[in-house]
From TrEMBL:
UniProt organism field: Friedmanniomyces endolithicus
GO cellular component, one term: peroxisome
EC number: 3.6.5.5
Classification via Gene3D superfamilies: Dynamin, middle domain, P-loop containing nucleotide triphosphate hydrolases
Gene transcribed to yield this protein: VPS1_3
GED domain sequence ranges: 431-518
SUPFAM superfamilies, alphabetized: P-loop containing nucleoside triphosphate hydrolases (SSF52540)
Protein name: Vacuolar protein sorting-associated protein 1
Length: 518
């Protein structure tokens, strides 16, 4: 307990020691040295000077030759046990003390620096000097604390604010304005450390959603053999003379519908950001003061957001459905069929080896080169007949057996016909043409969705809530019967206001007292 008090740097330590004991073993000085090793704020008091052995004194201690202290030592003579029991008056004890020091041969020359009255004057002087030294710091600390509690008291507000309807109206107006400024990035508390408010919504649009749409690969779920089967199915009962557009439209519509999932996910992410903004606004001290009002605000605004989600999701789904229901092959950025076929032909021509005349070493014309080449082996896909038989050509496998009897029997085709062989050169070219067309159109749709989905979300969710927030709050909250309940303060606010008032009053009185000290 003693150490706790004397450890404070502003404390003056009074180390009391009996003069008839060894000073080096003084408990008071030992404790003082632990917190004041240089003796800068310790004053020694020597008691029982009158009980020392004959011929001994404390002159060396007073001179600082034993254990020096910056504030020195003061010898005193107190009442003994017999004096206390005999009820010796303090005045008589002080007189006896003065006579002792004035008549003692070792102390008579220094009698004015000995005794309890001198100790009282010395302590008073030390205290005054110490106060003057620490006074600027004390004043600064008082003013700092006074300012701190005054600001907190201001934020807590007066317990009697006035008309409840005006208070709620002002809070609704202030909240709506802050919600708008946070979305627009005009709020005064802009962070230089992290993205916040509308900037986070922009990040959702231009980073998360944009990358999510571009990550959808139209060919990760449909393979070349699937495209070949669609080409044959789209030609119907007659083999197609040209690459059909039906297979292209079927595939591209299927892949466009895959963009609905990341688009709806984007709506959900923007909703989460609006809820995040709401949480930041409701964390302000005003709403901590009125917990019922905060809960009502949260419920009304969340309900408002959810009401706006339904039309937003519908509009985004409609955008995807619009792209999927009509394939605009006349788009100026679309790679048309003739151009796609020319690109594929150029690739295949470049991949073929050039035939040369063995006599002259010159390249042969295309017709002569074709005549010189051996007839190609058929690599047409076979059909999985379900009986393990393979054949040449897409339809040739059914007749792959050389058994004339089976051929003549014209057995019916199996229940399931699937292509299971490699693509022929003609089929490879047709598949490449379809893939070029799908890639070209799909990139157009991607760009459209990346541009239109954020606009749809801004229109029906972000802008709608920003413009109609105040109207919604007034409609749901501005009811006279509920206003008083909404403005019921929390127990913490009431208790804290009382504490701050007491501290402001106490610190104000302390500041007045300190200002009088010169």
């Amino acid at each position: 307990m003693v150490l706790k008090q004397i450890s404070k740097p502003n404390a003056i330590i009074l180390a009391v020691t009996a003069a008839n004991t060894d000073l080096a073993n003084s408990d008071g000085l030992k404790l003082a040295r632990e917190v004041d090793p240089e003796g800068q704020r310790t004053i020694g008091v020597l008691t029982k000077v009158d009980l020392m052995d004959e011929g001994t004194d404390v002159v060396d201690i007073l001179a600082g030759r034993i254990i020096p202290l910056r504030l020195g030592y003061v010898p005193v003579v107190n009442r003994g046990q017999r004096d206390i029991e005999g009820k010796k008056p303090i005045s008589a004890a002080l007189e006896a003390e003065r006579n002792f020091f004035e008549n003692h041969k070792a102390y008579r020359n220094k009698a004015s620096y000995c005794g309890t009255p001198y100790l009282a004057r010395k302590l008073n002087l030390i205290l005054m000097m110490h106060i003057k030294q620490t006074l600027p710091d004390i004043k600064a600390r008082i003013q700092s604390s006074l300012q701190k509690y005054s600001q907190e008291l201001t934020s807590l507000g007066d317990s009697m604010l006035g008309n409840s309807s005006n208070i709620v109206l002002n809070i609704i107006t202030e909240f709506s304005n802050e919600y708008r400024t946070v979305l627009e990035g005009h709020n005064a508390e802009l962070s230089s450390i992290e993205l916040s408010g509308g900037a986070r919504i922009s990040f959702v649009y231009h980073e998360l959603y944009s990358n999510g749409v571009r990550a959808v690969d139209p060919f990760d779920v449909i393979k070349d053999i699937d495209i070949r089967t669609l080409l044959y199915n789209s030609s119907g009962s007659s083999p197609a003379l040209f690459v059909g557009t039906t297979a292209f439209e079927v595939i591209v519509k299927q892949q466009i519908r895959r963009l609905e999932e990341p688009s709806i996910k984007c709506v959900s992410l923007v909703y989460d950001e609006l809820v995040r903004i709401l949480g930041q606004l409701l964390n302000k001290p005003l709403f901590r003061r009125y917990p019922s009002l905060k809960e009502k605000f949260h419920a009304v605004v969340i309900g408002f957001f959810k009401k706006a989600m339904d039309p937003t999701n519908k509009l985004v789904r409609d955008l995807v459905a619009m792209e999927a229901c009509y394939v605009n092959t006349g788009h100026p950025d679309f790679l048309n069929g003739h151009r796609a076929m020319a690109i594929v032909n150029e690739r295949h021509s470049a991949a073929k080896p050039v035939q040369v005349d063995p006599k002259t070493g010159k390249p042969l014309p295309a017709s002569a080169a074709a005549a010189a080449m051996p007839p190609p082996r058929s690599n047409s896909p076979s059909l999985d007949m379900g009986n393990g038989q393979d054949g040449a050509g897409f339809f040739g496998s059914f007749f792959a057996s050389k058994n004339k009897k089976k051929m003549a029997a014209m057995e019916p085709p199996p229940a399931t016909l699937k292509a299971s062989g490699t693509l022929s050169e003609k089929e490879s070219q047709e598949v490449e043409v379809i893939k070029l067309l799908i890639t070209s159109y799909y990139n157009i749709v991607r760009r459209t969705m990346v541009d239109m989905v954020p606009k749809a979300i801004m229109l029906t969710l972000v802008e709608h809530t920003k413009e109609d927030m105040q109207r919604e709050l007034l409609q749901e909250m501005y009811r006279q019967t509920e206003l008083d309940d909404l403005l019921k303060e929390s127990e913490y606010t009431v208790r804290r206001r009382k504490e701050c008032l007491q501290m402001v009053e106490s610190l104000g009185r302390a500041a007045e007292i300190v200002s009088q000290v010169q």
